[in-house]
Amino acid sequence: MAAVGKTVPKSPKPRAGPGSLARGWLILYNIVLTAGWLAVMYVYILHVLNNSSSPEVYSGLYDSVEVVLKVFQSLALLEIVHAALGIVPSNVLLTAFQVFSRVFLVWGVMHPFKEAQTSLGASLCIAAWTITEIIRYSFYTFALLNMKPYILQWCRYTFFIVLYPIGVTGELLAIYSSLAPAAEQKAFSLEMPNPLNVSFYYHYFLVGVMFTYIPIFPQLYFHMVRQRRKVIGGVTKVAKKE
Ligand SMILES: CCCCCCCCCCCCC/C=C/C(=O)SCCNC(=O)CCNC(=O)[C@H](O)C(C)(C)COP(=O)(O)OP(=O)(O)OC[C@H]1O[C@@H](n2cnc3c(N)ncnc32)[C@H](O)[C@@H]1OP(=O)(O)O
To answer: Which residues form the signal peptide (predicted)?
Structure first.
């Protein structure tokens, strides 16, 4: 019997899922993105198998995956839209940091600079992104279909522990490889004198981006640690008999 005067803890309200139109869209989106990243993985593995004994094994990898990578990494921008519209309960800011950093790597670092394309960093981060995204989008698809295979859920909330550091190391190495060519070519830079009376040096901007990883990466990482605790790491509370 509940004691008089004692407050009974409220159980959290179950969160409403997306409406049927949004749900249909998300299922389609997640299936397409799973297929896209599977295609990246297929091309990646094929490239490695065909070049296993040559230095091209990592230096030529970007050329092989370029088109599929660009398409499917860019489609991730829709994730920010999903979070902003509230059709998925993700944090908009964290999602934006996560997606922008990758889209920026693809279009602002690898696309313009051969040195970044052929760096070890590029193949490291592309491998980490690919494994993460195949698991993540397929997990979301199953979840929307009211199925949550435990193995997939476990991978979704565990692999990041090693894949995040690998991905970030790869990204930083790729940006680092682009610094010298960016400075040399004065790429995307604006020198004085000019009518706007401002100067902009892209290689300094790239250095600035590298520094932003210091405050932002731990936030993303510990967000995932909290998600892991919430989803698979919870302690089962046994109700005490009074
Ligand atoms: C000029 C620009 C410069 C920018 C500079 C920025 C610097 C940034 C530095 C940081 C660098 C990071 C680099 C990243 C590298 C890598 O990715 S390496 C590979 C390893 N990576 C990972 O493992 C990624 C892990 N991160 C994420 O998954 C996300 O990005 C996240 C935003 C951090 C995840 O958060 P969240 O959305 O909260 O996670 P979930 O638990 O999965 O989802 C919460 C709920 O939302 C539902 N949901 C989300 N998306 C979908 C979807 N597409 N479809 C359906 N449902 C979705 C999900 O199911 C959850 O719902 P509930 O179960 O009901 O809670």
So the answer is: none
